[in-house]
Amino acid sequence: MDIKKVVIVGGGTAGWLAANHLGKTLFNTNDVTVTLIESPDIPTIGVGEGTVPAIRKSLQSFGISETEFITQCDVTFKQSIKFSNWLDSDIHGKNNFFHHLFDMPSPMGDDLTPFWLNREVEDYANIVSPQFRVCEAFKAPKKITTPEYVGSLGYAYHLNAAKFAKLLAKNARDKFSVEHILANVREVKLDDTGAVHSLVTDTQGELKFDLYIDCTGFEALIINKALKVPFVDKSKQLLVDRALTVQVPTESNEPIPPFTLATAHQAGWIWDIALSNRRGVGFVYSTKYMDDETAIKKLDKYLGGGLSGLNYRFLPMKVGYREKFWHQNCICLGLAQGFLEPLEATSILLTDFAASYIANRLPKSVVQMASIQTQFNQVMEYAWERVVEFIKLHYCLSDRSDSQFWVDNRDPSTIPDELARKLSLWQTHIPNREDFFSKFEVFDLENYLYVLYGMKYQTQADALTEKQMSLAIKQSHQLDQVALQLIGELPEHRDLLEKIKLYGLQSI
């Protein structure tokens, strides 16, 4: 049987990202249609308000103007994640921090990591990249004259998730002719083989398709409730399981940090994301080590007593992923696929990655489905496991001992075997490209370098020769000059955003 009718069940960021990827790929294929069924009663969950640089490629491929995106979705630029207090304050200072930058380290050609390990007197990111000081100066990553999706430095975005979903929806409908149906799915009918036969809706009756993409969030209406695909629990490795979230209004003249602020606390961490008109703040914690009442008090303290009068809500976090991401004629994406936690903005990242993969390998018939399904499941399991490892890295490297939460995060039984193996290797060898051998690495060498050495990981480095030391010092001075030049040339973050709203960026 040929695959002629594809349906995406669920809107939001996940559903509409999938609609754009599929719509773009299938737009000139006259015999294949893409439909998205969206409930008019379920709001978008605004957790995924941070992205990674890969989203720029997707948005550009969809034909979305960066100017339109920035002005319509309350977008701000994100050049880094600034981790505050993830290390012991008695050893590293009360307000210790490090940056996980989005620009490549050591851009002058030679790896400056050995140079830093032999000195270890400054922040690692400040030694290897000029972006550290650009971030600390609250500068934008580009100028108003810089073309769309191009920057002087690497960047991603912070965004309003609800507005982002609306922009993606309009683009998918208008550019790629994706059919949009507003209806609630009341029942998922299966056929004799256990595959999805049809969907029963409240306003459109029974609808039959060939391939079903489940983007129904935590409910996982098809992959979980109908097809009963098991969930792989990762709560023994990643200990946080709850978030207390709030939106904090800001003044129109307040400086906007060009980074996500991630501040560690007694039993987890706090995200702080600045949009143009508000901050999205989330207190992430483990209920094993902190109760809800204490979490409210801690968040109120973080906001300087500003929690009262604001509407806040609790979000449970079931940490893990589906045992299969493609089962029978159903593929799950977004929160239906799984969720770990907001650290490192992995939710939108994995959704975009998976949606692109499906669009580029969509089977033409049911006969082709089995082999592609097997490969997709293998690739996505690999990607999810690597994300688990990278998130765990932040916790198990911390030397904080002010609560049992941090002590337990260093327990070897909670550290994934592959991560433990790599950390053992990196005690005596600086990470290199060969340590990340798959094209499906979600986080690569440069990501690990920023986190490992931002958290003062002790790799036994060979002493540098006089020639090596001289070259490293020269390149370090060159990066200093580049940083000063960029700080002088680049606009203040908020100033650039205001100019984009007035004049727009240059289209490519």
From TrEMBL:
PANTHER family: FAD-BINDING PROTEIN, FLAVIN-DEPENDENT TRYPTOPHAN HALOGENASE. This is Tryptophan 7-halogenase. It comes from Shewanella nanhaiensis.
